[in-house]
Amino acid sequence: MSSPARRTVFLVVLIVILALVFVASLAFGSRWLGPGALWHAMTANNGSDADVIVRSLRAPRTIVAVLIGLCLGVAGALMQGHTRNALAEPGIFGVSAGAAFAVVLGLQTGVVESVGATVWVALAGALIATYGVQRLASRGSGATPVGLALTGAAVAALLGAMTSAVVLLDSTTLDSYRFWAVGSVAGRGLDVAGQVLPFAVIGLVLAAINARDLDLLALGDDVAAGLGLSIPRARLIGLGAIGLLTAAGVAACGPIGFLGLLSGHVARQLFGSRNTWLIPGAGLVGASAMVLADLVGRLIGGAGEVQAGVVLGIVGAPLFVLVVRRRAVVL
């Protein structure tokens, strides 16, 4: 089978997997719903318990999980491409830390009093942090992969320390913040998805534009420049996409660690280093993983639920370490 045909097969398989976990998320939970109940809820809603469960609870949170997983998966692939490090992930740019610090300040000042307010405050913090990292890393010789990574790590550490200082000095803020910081789609409805959707769409468009640039950058900056690529422009577009996509994900459901890392690596094993295939593949992997983590958290949580961010950390990190030990991690 030729390489394009093989990649097409993998892409179709990932789409099928996403469809299956989406349906499973609608069917399973504290109460199992059979195919008949699901079909009735989606086509002939009459207000029954099953209809309310599907339409008001499970479907909205599953749609949010798909959107957030797609954003963080694509952001992870972009981050790994721009830093030329297959173990990089979006949080290294300080985006999550910027969102967290903004939310903490919003909680302390009373600006954040609802999920909708949290989304906008987190988005503002994430985008400001992204812009700050880009400006700092661009000083001197420009935003190189190493410069972006080091600057992002430094900004993330600084903002993380400031966030800790605020929440440790204010117990009320800490109580409110810890529910957002764990990373969850519980209680997130279509209103939240609608608020972050414009940022996600713009980020995905920028990612699609940046895919070919990343293929050229992989040849080396000198070769890419010789082929006519504007390296500062390519870096700026990529950083903008990473910032918007990660900001949308973090704003909607809190910091979700590991997902971008996992998605980019798995997609690279399936599609190779061609970013025109790798980036959409990473998005599909991220969406499926996010929905599955949310579903597993509901199934193992008993009367409550384990948050998706916790599930991804507990289950995903050991599996990823195992994969890295067994296979060479290369770009």
From TrEMBL:
Give TM segment ranges. Answer: 62-79, 91-111, 117-134, 146-169, 236-264, 276-300, 306-324
Per the record's keyword annotation, is Transmembrane included, yes or no?
yes
Entry coiled-coil feature ranges: none
A single BP term in Gene Ontology: siderophore-iron import into cell
Cellular component GO terms, alphabetically? plasma membrane
Pfam (any one): FecCD
Which InterPro entries does the record cross-reference, listed alphabetically? ABC_BtuC-like (IPR037294), ABC_transptr_permease_BtuC (IPR000522)
Q: Does the keyword Transmembrane apply?
A: yes
Q: How does it sit in the membrane?
A: Multi-pass membrane protein
Signal peptide bounds: none
Q: Name one GO molecular function term.
A: transmembrane transporter activity
UniProt entry keywords in alphabetical sequence: Cell membrane, Membrane, Transmembrane, Transmembrane helix, Transport
Organism superkingdom: Bacteria
Its chief place of residence is: membrane
Q: What subcellular locations does the record give?
A: Cell membrane
Similarity comment: Belongs to the binding-protein-dependent transport system permease family. FecCD subfamily.
Name of the protein this chain belongs to: Iron ABC transporter permease
Q: Which organism is the protein's source?
A: Kribbella antibiotica
